[in-house]
Write a structure and sequence with these properties.
Layout (H helix, E strand, L loop, with lengths): L2 E8 L5 H17 L4 E7 L4 H7 L5 H9 L2 E4 L17 H8 L4 E8 L15 E8 L12 E2 L4 E2 L6 H20 L6 E6 L5 H15 L5 E6 H10 L6 E4 L1 H15 L6 E5 L4 E5 L16 H17 L3 H20 L13 H12 L3
Parallel strand pairs: 1-2, 1-3, 3-12, 5-10, 8-9, 8-10
Antiparallel strand pairs: 4-5, 4-11, 6-7, 11-12
Helix pairs in contact: 1-9, 1-11, 5-6, 7-8, 9-10, 10-11
Length: about 375
């Protein structure tokens, strides 16, 4: 008997609804073709446009829907023209991370040998690593609550042992599962600035303690500035990287650049009991309604959701469908014909999604 999973759906702002609709349609079709699982989508209103209408960016009802869901699918959020009174942008996705303690921001970076990338990769080289960004504290801790006077401004960086220990356990478990799947050597790199800041020396100390509990895996360290260099010079050397919130925010965009842009960058924010899956890119209001938004990052995020649910609930069919969905998108990107203008093609949003559907359900 198929098990039902409730998915909270945040449709987002700008191009958000345009890329969410085909993504949900693909997920529904996969579930319909399976006798092992069923998906039930529940809308959760939130975001900048909702704030402009109601004065509430993340209603309590939507928060309750998210808490009760088996997984959360969230599209691009925020509009530059709609801000809180203090001038900061509307960011329900960050509020969700903190409210649900989604400490592990997972940003996979994958470039196959047959795919275009801004880098000129050596023959036979592929890029396949995962950046794990702590997502609830770090330099984002005082978001919206920093101290500002006429002469100075202060933000507080917070790193706690409780969250860091969970983060590092997650990173080593991920490296072990990637090694078992043949996708990496089983190595975790701690990215920090421990040579300058005591907070990062503390961060590294906790990492080293977790590394000692995982002697079957490799562990090393890298300063964040050197990491940015090495991600360009030799990105194939990385497997799992784990870092603080702000550093991860910056390096994840660099990782997206290696793949060809934010339109190809999926992500997940995962905690002990909840997970949000969303594209890394913004809401792109300048192209909203034109029908040319790239849906691939949203679809790849949905593939991550299927894989996470399948692993969490021991549902092999969901994991297989997640892998199929990811492979279909990667095939289209490598082929380069059914891609949107940001990738050099002429396909519209619905055309790109249809190309994914055709690969999934080809007779």
């Amino acid at each position: 008997m198929a098990r039902s999973f409730n998915i909270a759906v945040f449709h987002g702002d700008g191009i958000g609804p345009e890329i969410m609709a085909p993504t949900c349609a693909l997920l529904a079709q996969l579930a319909e073709a399976s006798d092992s699982y069923d998906l039930r989508f529940q809308d959760a209103p939130a975001g900048a446009a909702h704030y402009a209408k109601t004065g509430d960016s993340l209603p309590e009802g939507s928060m309750n829907t998210a808490r009760a869901a088996d997984a959360i699918l969230l599209s691009a959020m925020g509009l530059p023209s709609v801000r809180y009174p203090d001038g900061t942008e509307i960011s329900p996705q960050i509020e969700l991370r903190k409210a649900l303690t989604l400490f592990a921001g997972v940003r996979p970076v994958t470039v196959r040998t047959d795919r275009h990338t801004p880098l000129k990769l050596p023959a036979g080289r592929e890029i396949d690593f995962v950046l794990v960004r702590e997502s609830t504290e770090g330099l984002f801790y005082t978001q919206g609550r920093g101290e500002v006077t006429q002469d100075e401004a202060r933000e507080t960086l917070l790193i706690t042992r409780e969250i860091s220990e969970q983060l590092f356990r997650f990173a080593f478990d991920l490296a072990r599962s990637r090694k078992a799947a043949g996708r990496g050597p089983g190595k975790v790199t701690c990215v920090d600035k421990a040579n300058v800041f005591r907070a990062f020396a503390f961060f590294r100390e906790i990492f080293d303690a977790e590394a000692a509990r995982n002697p079957d895996l490799l562990a090393d360290h890298a300063y964040v500035d050197a990491t940015a260099l090495w991600m360009v010079e030799r990105p194939w050397d990385f497997d799992v990287m784990v870092t603080e919130n702000m550093f991860g925010d910056i390096l994840s965009d660099l990782g997206a650049g290696l793949m060809g842009g934010l339109g190809l960058a999926p992500s997940a924010d995962i905690g002990a009991n909840h997970a949000v899956f969303q594209p890394c890119h913004g809401s792109a209001p300048d192209i909203a309604g034109t029908g040319v938004a790239n849906p691939f990052a949203m679809i790849l995020s949905a593939a991550m959701m299927l894989d996470w649910l399948g692993l969490r609930h021991e549902n092999a069919a969901m994991q297989r469908d997640g892998a199929r969905l990811r492979a279909a998108v990667e095939d289209i990107i490598a082929q380069g014909t059914d891609v949107t203008p940001d990738l050099g093609g002429r396909a519209r949003t619905d055309d790109a999604a249809q190309a994914v559907r055709d690969r999934l359900f080809a007779p």
